[in-house]
Amino acid sequence: MPELRSSTRQARLRSKKLDDPQPGEPPVKPASPAPPRAGKRAPTRAARGRKVAAGKRAPPPPKPRRKGVEIVDLKADPACEDPPKAVAGVGVAGAAKNLALNKVAQVGVNKGLKMDGESAEKIVGVEDDSTATPVPERVQVGNSPEYITDRKLGKGGFGQVYVGRRVSGGTARTGPDAYEVALKFEHRNSKGCNYGPPYEWQVYNALNGCYGIPSVHYKGRQGDYYILVMDMLGPSLWDVWNSMGQAMSANMAACIAVEGISILEKLHSKGFVHGDVKPENFLLGQAGSPDDKKLYLIDLGLASKWRETGGHHVDYDQRPDIFRGTIRYASVHAHLGRTGSRRDDLESLAYTLIFLIRGRLPWQGYQGDTKSFLVCKKKMATSPEMLCCFCPAPFKQFLEIVTNMKFDEEPNYAKLISLFDGLIESPASRPIRIDGALKVGQKRGRLLVNLEEDEQPKKKVRLGSPAAQWISVYNARRPMKQRYHYNVADSRLSQHIEKGNEDGLYISCVASAANLWALIMDAGTGFCSQVYELSPVFLHKDWIMEQWEKSYYITAIAGSTNGSSLVVMSKGTPYTQQSYKVSESFPYKWINKKWKEGFHVTSMATAGNRWGVVMSRNSGYSNQVVELDFLYPSEGIHRRWETGYRITSTAATNDQAAFILSMPKRKPMDETQETLRTSAFPSGHVKEKWAKNLYIASICFGRTVC
């Protein structure tokens, strides 16, 4: 996967959204383009574009492919059979139920998120007890006392947790001198130990003594196992919720909220995010001990750094094949494979709190290979008002704030804690201690925290009202002819294309909406000849292979909701080899594989929920990245722009929008790029852009709003 590069952005980059619906417009007469520049000779009739209309003749049998051409089977992707890498950990638990509920760590997600890879639901990082070496009957690591391995508490990720009892001595309930401890075993051959001790050990080394994180007293390797010796804790919030009839009072949930926020603040201050916040990972102290009402956050196996050693925030990236966390409680950004940051822990905490109050989340119950995709889609489509309709107002306010946070935004922890002040009862009635929250309040004047006068409310990103729009991308170019047609029926395509060819124009991009076509034709393509096919098949394999044999390459594709497609192939491109794929899900895994082979995405389209992606060698790009979301990914696109990337391909279904952003080998003199989102085809706005020498470079129709 290409990585982000840092560079100075010298061009103005703007993204504008037009929310007001525009009245439907009939097909317009093409605008008269400017005459050709002096010294440019229009192509002769023999060199002008040729068309191959669908249905006029049966395609010939495929010929042997010439060198430099690659074809990909058009069948939907099978599920990946290779077990993906995973890194997961198990926290110290007081009951077996606490461990590993649908945990998936750093896995390739295929139909679970409409992407290539294995289904998230099928991959649970749990050791196979039948093949693992039995855990030692007695344990002594480092300078620890000797412990007898007692009953098993549970397992999850790639670890197992047992009770350990001291062979001799020990009088305390917690600490290094405790009579009873928790022993966490991870086998040396587990995925998390491929390179030595588990990654979780590094996190505990950095966090040991952090507020709300259980203490690790000893660690080391004995035989085939890496072993942690930790404090024993009590029941998890999941156990407490079950014991209370699967419903919690607002007072208890508010106490959990403020103490959970406090623990996360301390964790974040150390430069880490937890990555798997959920009821099973919040535990109380041992029953009957002075800390039996104290809250702890366990399981650091998925923790990651949000802050680099130098103090700056980690770089933004999106890897749609990577998912870390638990499907039910994961943030939307985690589902989409974005780099983890502080906002993700807080969003997972919000889902945890709402679950404890309501007893159920709207996305529970999905099963099968598409579970992760459907859960993420449901999260995006559920507004805070709908999700929190049975919760006190502070929980809705908390959810709205954390789901609108930016990638590197610093949370206002004191403000978040203050939201729940009115729900917390007197100290004698508190089922959970809120020591950490009180310290935050004393330090920062929590009770006086209000919205700053100059702080404007953020625009909501989850409205619960999905919508589709036209997405158009404009690049700065020297003055040239450009012409557009939209709402074009199948029978009118040839007329518009032939007229454009006669005027020296070639198709640069195509799109479809409501089974009608949009054409963009201009004089700046550099093509010398062009053919096209309108086919009832999405990317007609035989016809494409036939044109490849004639040295044509795919330069534009579009698909309609009824499954038909428009494929444009041209001569005069720099491409030396092409490959394409049709998939029922966004084929990120295949794209990533082809990147490593020297290909880059040069065209994309959708037909219904199917994706078609074309990749070419010698495309003129040095690097590419993907932005994939259930709405227009404004923040991601702007971050890519800031590092020198430009949108080069777009496509969207009724569920998702995808953008390919590329780093050109040769930077244009003017790097200006703008995007526009409109309910109707942007005919009037295109003319305004032309006046600024901004020309349509890519266009599609699909999901932009949730």
Automatic annotation (TrEMBL):
Residues 38-54 have a biased composition (Basic residues). Residues 23-36 have a biased composition (Pro residues). Residues 1-69 are annotated as: Disordered. Residues 1-10 have a biased composition (Polar residues). It is an enzyme of class 2 (transferase). Its EC number is 2.7.11.1. The keyword Ion transport does not apply. SUPFAM superfamilies: Protein kinase-like (PK-like). ATP binds at residue 184. Pfam families: DUF7477 (PF24289), Pkinase (PF00069). Residues 147-424 form the Protein kinase domain. One of its GO terms (molecular function) is ATP binding. Keywords: ATP-binding, Kinase, Nucleotide-binding, Transferase. InterPro entries: CK1_Ser-Thr_kinase, DUF7477, Kinase-like_dom_sf, Prot_kinase_dom, Protein_kinase_ATP_BS, Ser/Thr_kinase_AS. Transmembrane segments: none annotated. The keyword Kinase applies. Gene3D superfamilies: Transferase(Phosphotransferase) domain 1 (1.10.510.10). Belongs to the protein kinase superfamily. CK1 Ser/Thr protein kinase family. Casein kinase I subfamily. This is non-specific serine/threonine protein kinase. It comes from Urochloa decumbens. The lineage of its organism: Eukaryota, Viridiplantae, Streptophyta, Embryophyta, Tracheophyta.
